[in-house]
Design goal:
six-stranded antiparallel beta sheet; 16 helices; 3 domains; alpha+beta; Beta-Lactamase; 445 residues; 17 strands; Alpha-Beta Plaits; rod-shaped
Length: 445
């Protein structure tokens, strides 16, 4: 052995190099005699040390395999690591490599074996290096498993999402999974170098005109990344040209947990849901509109007045000093008209009174809150001109009385934020003023 160590300086240089590259042990094998020496490094300086020596490398290796190699890998190792196979692999200057697992403290650990054939006077020798690659392999397996996991997730979500993007925001590269023929064929995976540039092209080509600028702005890289960083997610609803017509889609982008380098985007077709929602809202709106309006006069009814009263009461309670007034009107002589001319004439009387009120208070909501009673909530211009408008009502009532047309009694009161706590306070003053006006009207008959 000492002769080998003295004469094969080139070999030891290679051994030292191999050990410097983190090989745990190196075998120096004479391919003609199968004699071998096993070297290892010891100490901080990694000085070469002989670990073992033998006359039949492959026979000893088989024994060690049965003792040290993971049971699941033993047959593969013995079938692969044979002398003929090693020599055939390296005879043309190539190397022979093998990956397997050794049992270390009862735990399978990944190892890598590599052979190098000597040259010149060393050509009968083979150097075999064995390196522990467990940490590296486990990192690679973890990365591959993670990648496979994302692939499974993408395909699992395919039934919900039309297309899914997995974006590396460090370099903008992306993987696209499409499940809809409107986007691509099911299961097709496409990769790209710059998601945001691709998105610009697609947005300009396929997004509905009215939504295009908004989507371009939200999907610009800087704004997109900022929103994700601040909010953790981003949702966009817009219209896209799909299947020859405009359809609603929703985009949702999220940052995977503990993975700030990537963003996952899912695009789902919500057209059917959106159109059902629109139809429902329209139907509901129509139903509410019908429920809140008086069938005879078409103005709002008592239910609508109560809703507005609640809204204004909430504003008063919150300290909002809102300027408004309430005018209350009652149709004069309705009972006499019904008794003498019938209810059809009485209904026309009510409609004529309502028309007078609506044409006077053009900027305020009018409510029929009883059979012959109306209320007006004056805001804005009508509130500012309330004195003038009530004067117009009085003038028309005088003319109508002389012409034996419809007349109404009315009263008005403005909200006083210093004393009033509820709309009811204003209404009651206006109602009292209306009854005083009705008494005066009867005295003039």
């Amino acid at each position: 052995m000492s002769g080998i160590m003295d004469n094969e300086n080139l070999t030891f240089a290679r051994l030292a190099l191999a050990l410097a590259n983190d090989y745990e042990c190196v075998y120096y094998l004479n391919s003609e005699t199968d004699h071998y020496v096993e070297y290892g490094a010891s100490g901080d300086e990694k000085e070469l040390k002989v670990l073992s020596e033998g006359d039949d490398f492959f026979a000893d290796t088989e024994k060690n395999c049965r003792r040290l190699v993971c049971a699941e890998d033993q047959e593969m190792f013995l079938r692969t690591f044979k002398k003929d196979a090693v020599l055939d692999a390296i005879k043309n200057g190539s190397s022979f490599t093998l990956n397997y697992r050794l049992m270390i403290n009862g735990v399978p650990c990944h190892y890598h074996l590599k052979t190098i054939k000597g040259t010149g006077k060393d050509d009968k020798y083979i150097i075999i290096g064995v390196r522990n690659v467990d940490a590296q392999v486990r990192r690679e397996l973890e990365a591959e498993n993670e990648k496979e996991l994302y692939s499974h997730i993408a395909h699992a979500l395919a039934s919900r999402y039309e297309v899914i993007y997995y974006i590396d925001i460090r370099d903008n590269s992306f993987i696209e999974y499409s499940s809809s023929e409107q986007f691509a064929k099911l299961g097709v995976r496409k990769q790209g170098d710059d998601f945001f540039e691709s998105a610009k092209t697609d947005i300009r080509s396929f997004i509905f005109d009215a939504d295009r600028d908004r989507v371009l702005d939200e999907m610009s890289r800087d704004k997109f990344v900022k929103n994700i960083r601040v909010n953790g997610s981003l949702t966009l609803t817009y219209r896209q040209l799909l299947g020859g017509r405009t359809q609603y889609v929703s985009l949702m982008a999220v940052e995977p947990k503990n993975d700030p380098d990537h963003v996952v985007i899912g695009v789902v077709n919500i057209d059917a849901d959106k159109r059902r929602e629109t139809a429902y809202r329209e139907a509901l709106g129509n139903a509410i509109e019908v429920a809140n309006h008086d069938s005879l006069t078409s103005v709002r009814n008592k239910h609508a007045y109560a809703a507005l009263e609640d809204e204004i009461n909430q504003q008063i309670a919150s300290g909002e000093n809102r300027d408004f007034a309430i005018a209350v009107f009652d149709v004069n002589n309705l009972k006499e008209t019904n008794d003498q001319l019938g209810h059809v004439a009485g209904d026309q009387f009510i409609k004529s009174a309502c028309e007078l009120i609506c044409t006077t208070f053009k900027h305020s909501p009018v409510f029929r809150i009883g059979g012959d009673e109306f209320a007006v909530v004056l805001m804005g211009k009508d509130y500012r001109d309330r004195g003038i408008l009530m004067g117009k009502i009085d003038s028309v009532v005088k003319d109508n009385r002389n012409a034996r047309l419809v007349t109404i009694a009315g009263g008005i009161s403005a909200f006083d934020f210093k004393t009033d706590k509820f709309v009811r306070d204003v209404f009651e003053r206006a109602d009292a003023a209306m009854y005083e006006n009705k008494k005066m009207f009867k005295k003039m008959l």
